[in-house]
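Re: the multi-chain job from yesterday

Posting the exact lines I submitted so nobody has to dig through the queue logs.
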Amino acid sequence: MALDRKDLAILAELTTNARASHTELANKVGLSSTALARRQKALEDDGYIQAYQAALDLAQFGLTTTVLVRIALESQSDEALKAFEAEVVKCPSVVRCFLMSGTDDYILIVLARDIQDFERIHRTELSRLPRVARVQSSFALREVVNRAVPTVVFGETRR
Amino acid sequence: MALDRKDLAILAELTTNARASHTELANKVGLSSTALARRQKALEDDGYIQAYQAALDLAQFGLTTTVLVRIALESQSDEALKAFEAEVVKCPSVVRCFLMSGTDDYILIVLARDIQDFERIHRTELSRLPRVARVQSSFALREVVNRAVPTVVFGETRR
DNA sequence: TCTCCTTGGGCACACCGACACGCATCCTGG
DNA sequence: CCAGGATGCGTGTCGGTGTGCCCAAGGAGA
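And the result, structure tokens for all chains:
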């Protein structure tokens, strides 16, 4: 299935206003409400739209500190990876975890209230992860770009 | 303003089903639709809920490769930072960019179709960024955790 | 060239549900 | 005992959503 510009316009709008009604979207895209409803349903059924979710302001919850954590394991054996991953998914402050190529085995993104809070997270969550050989933390001083979807998606021109 | 468990339950549910109706949410949380409507509006007005957005399946768009890019600048002067940041926000394949403490100046998260596509991005987007001294790329082999909101948010117990 | 068929769009309508309001109740704290 | 805040119920109105039908455009085949 290929997407045309109107599909991309629908997706671009829904990534901003997920609760927009059919008529509302139809006006912005330049379609009738029924044609738009068909397209939107197709985008959902074909899996382009995974879900509709509320975006929370994490700063409002006091989570203003982002930390990148590099973790190297004692060994890269399959058993060690499985043991580590089974535990890291339980860490409540971890929002992302990548298994990486290169020297570092894993990279985590951790959200904390402040530096003191990260010390607590380091002690209660990270240091309890199994098979860890080395942990290296870097603090994010500022977030320059934060997009859910790369703009390249909406720039494609098919059809 | 403090949030109680019901507020957190509302937020937890809305981060999954942003289009849920008042009655639907009310049943899950254990409130009447009118009490829920008041709370939801308060959460929006107080800024806890920033927006409602559709989550796209980026793999459906062919973006299956995540790359972490470490960038060091020639100098950390304010002018160099500003020049770099003004350009990096224009890169269509960059989804996140942090100004970091420590040795690396910036860390980017880039989404690409595959390794060949990242070569193109490296050539057309990254290598054109100003004041760059060193670029180091690491490929994510797998995404172990990917959460929009840390689970710690919903575990708080106030009131 | 003509015709058939498919695909996508628009119009109209009817139904169902959501949303907002008013009011009574309850609980808690002063 | 009272006052304020929060809840729940009921109701009415409004809007969205889904359906059926028709139309236009384009492609395939005879």
